[in-house]
Amino acid sequence: MIYLSSFKLSDRNVKNPNIYPYNVFRRKDMEPFVFAPITVLYGNNGSGKSTILNIIANKLMLKGKEYAASNSFGIVDYCGKFSSECQFSYGEDEFGNVFKRFPENSRFIKSEDILYEIKKIQQRQILSDGMEYDYMKNGYSRKEAEEYFQTREGRHQIEYIEFAQEKYSNGETAMQFFEEYLLPDALYLLDEPEVSLSPANQVLLAKEINKLARLLSCQFIIATHSPFMLGTLDAKIYNIDKEDYSICKWYELENVRYFYDFFKKHEKEFEE
């Protein structure tokens, strides 16, 4: 499904070369992004791929959008101005009808959102353990402690403990996060979803995204430089490191070639 057909970044030039976000796209020769069911914005650190996602989220007024402070140059809201100068077009449904709004579940999911969820669960684990310890430290017997955990407050603590133990590792927590938030019939902007995931789980997540796009009417725009995600996603890939943001194959990208060269160099060690 294509909910967002295209997006054109502002091409206005400002005199001050340090104004954010205009400075990120200075001297770029860009055509509008034309989106597929899965589109990847590839780029190294500082390339602007996360900035592009946030600009899209702000322009489309999606859940999870993050307001960015432009800089200290006067009182002008340059981020707001840049966003207002961008243009986009809706996609069409299977009958050729142009969408007039984006699905309600659509959202922008940042790597910080995933890390926050992980931290929140870890804090719950510490809190639960601490309360149990304090309860026993105050002189209550094991039987009394067991009776406490049958109360409403105690049951809540048990739920927290089970919840934290079930998702003990960061990677498991991140995968559960995506299971809960990636629902059918929606547009999702994902910023570096590979955070905290092992290579195997990165591939697993990419396969799930493929399935959601192919079978469950989802559209994804993803910022990543993970070779495991890039090689698994059935995606159209824009190389944000290029001045013209050209479309590339995943195996042509610098980060992927780096991995290839590294393992090629150590190939004989794997044969021992």
Automatic annotation (TrEMBL):
Domain (AAA+ ATPase) ranges: 35-243
UniProt KW Signal keyword: no
Gene Ontology MF, one: ATP hydrolysis activity
UniProt keyword DNA-binding present: no
Record's protein name: ATP-binding cassette domain-containing protein
Superkingdom in the source lineage: Bacteria
InterPro entries (alphabetical): AAA+_ATPase, ATPase_AAA_core, Bact_Antivir_Def_Nuclease, P-loop_NTPase
Pfam families: AAA_21
Organismal lineage: Bacteria, Bacillati, Bacillota, Clostridia, Lachnospirales
Source species: Dorea formicigenerans
Keywords: ATP-binding, Nucleotide-binding
Gene3D superfamilies: P-loop containing nucleotide triphosphate hydrolases
